[in-house]
């Protein structure tokens, strides 16, 4: 092999290595984003569940108050 061919191969090897590093970094970033999305989705679901539970409790309390008032007025 001549010197020019050897240099071209080294350059190609460096480019491949850089591309591999870029690819690995993109995969890592994508994995992190997926994990963050999953976490935020879980947090959103938890918040929504708590809001629904509180809303349901408010309805139960309102219903109990109405029944209590009816019983007081009905007696």
Strand-helix topology:
Layout: H1 3-74
Describe the 3D structure.
There is one protein chain. The protein has one helix at 3-74. The protein is mainly alpha-helical. The mean pLDDT is 86. It is built from 1 helix and no strands. The radius of gyration is 32 Å and the shape is rod-shaped.
Short overview:
The protein has 1 helix and no strands. With 75 residues, it is an all-alpha fold. The model has no long low-confidence stretch (mean pLDDT 86).
Provide the helix percentage: over 70%
Number of helices: 1
Low-confidence stretches: none
**What general form does the structure show?**
rod-shaped
Mean pLDDT: 86
Report, as a whole number of angstroms, the end-to-end distance: 108 Å
How does the helix and strand content classify structurally? Answer: mainly alpha
Element-by-element helix/strand order: H
């Amino acid at each position: 092999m001549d010197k020019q061919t050897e240099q071209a191969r080294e350059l190609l090897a460096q480019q491949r290595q850089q591309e591999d590093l870029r690819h690995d970094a993109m995969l890592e970033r994508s994995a992190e984003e997926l994990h963050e999305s999953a976490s935020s989705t879980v947090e959103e679901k938890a918040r929504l569940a708590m809001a629904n539970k509180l809303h349901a409790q408010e309805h139960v309390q309102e219903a109990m108050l109405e029944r209590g008032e009816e019983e007081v007025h009905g007696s």
